[in-house]
Sequence to fold (274 residues):
Amino acid sequence: MLRLLNLELQKLLLNRTSKVLIFISFVLPFFIILLSSLKINVFGFFTLELGELGVFNFPIIWHLTTFFSSQFKFFFAIVVVSMIGNEYSNKTLKQNLIDGLSKKEFILSKFYTIIFFSLVSTVLTAFISLCIGLYYSSYTEVGIILMETEFLLAYFVKLVAFFSLCLFFGMLVKRSAFALAFLFILFIVEWIAFGLMAWQWDANVAEKIQNIFPLKSMYKLIDQPFQRIAMTKFPDKAELAYDYAVHWHEMALVLGWTALFIFLSYRLLKKRDL
Fold:
């Protein structure tokens, strides 16, 4: 495992574009710190400071930071599809196989890299959340701090699944730009399918089916936190209530998609004439 991971990291770090994109993908989550210190002057009447509104209290901060950090995953997605595109354009894939690397090991090296960077991103997000929470939160009891840390696990699973999908599209089309285009096409197809099902049957049934689709199932792991924040400010508004928790069956579904994407990537490489 370490040998394959080290081999892939060497390739990425020798590529200037990959280094820049990796750096950006790790630095952007730190902008949440800037968000926490943001002060908004409302027409000169009063100053609105997000950090003083309670949105960075434990345990809600785990939900907030993982949701926002996951929005920056597109930068490393470019790195993932570039890993495959560069292998084909630079002929390094064929050379690696000639040098004794099996096709299974080749796919595993990519997957191990995905896990590694997803883990690093999760640790950074946890560190940022802890620092902001300890500074702003009114609750500092260990039990409350550790509540809802399952959002971190959901964040890790979400990244691994999304990057595995990028890996599959990269293997499918061999070109970075086309692979990213396929992501956008899949997003459109999922929503078109939802619209057709809602028109044909019922919106609730259509939504339940849509939640099984790859991109939507990944999104559902960490639902938007804005409605939850509104619930804390207006507890009497029953219509604001919604299910924002991390569910294990949703995580199992996303892990199933991840396994399928890795398996299909391997099958494509195994059958392809290099």
